[in-house]
Amino acid sequence: MGSMGNRVKITSYSEFLSRINETKNITEIAFRFSDDPWRTRYLIICHRMMHPPIVVTRGFSRRRHRFFTAEELGEARIFKGKSLKEKWDKVIFVPLP
């Protein structure tokens, strides 16, 4: 499928969830959707010292969606009324700037 950051290859949605849930340190993952003509970049930040530990932002927006688990993130309909799980086949991981 893609890579997280440029280092780890992700081949499935379930593998993505596992990697998010197993995160012990700070992790940042950038992605976009292939069907988005504006190529909007999203950022997932995982940090076990935050409460909740998973945050998603869109571009440079200050609006943040917060989640306790990767499953919550995957099911939340925050991407124009669809969930990450529903749009998984359109996910493109991109390098962090």
Descriptive notes:
By secondary structure, the chain is of the alpha+beta class. It is 16% helix and 32% strand. It has 2 helices and 7 strands, in the order E-E-H-E-E-E-E-H-E. It has a 5-stranded antiparallel sheet with strand order 6-5-4-3-7. The protein is globular and about 35 Å long. The protein starts with a strand and ends with a strand.
In short:
The chain has 97 residues and is an alpha+beta fold. 16% of the residues lie in helices and 32% in strands.
Q: So how many helices? A: 2
β-sheet strand percentage: 25-35%
Unreliable residue runs? 1-6
Shape: globular
End-to-end distance: 20 Å
Strand segment count: 7
- Helical residue percent? 10-25%
> Could you say which structural class the secondary elements and strand pairing correspond to?
alpha+beta
The average pLDDT score comes to 88
Q: Helix and strand succession?
A: EEHEEEEHE
Radius of gyration: 12 Å
Keywords, separated by commas or semicolons:
97 residues; alpha+beta; five-stranded antiparallel beta sheet; 2 helices; globular
Q: Which helices and strands, and how do they pair?
A:
Layout: E1 2-4, E2 8-10, H1 13-22, E3 27-33, E4 42-46, E5 54-58, E6 64-67, H2 70-75, E7 91-94
Antiparallel strand pairs: 1-2, 3-4, 3-7, 4-5, 5-6
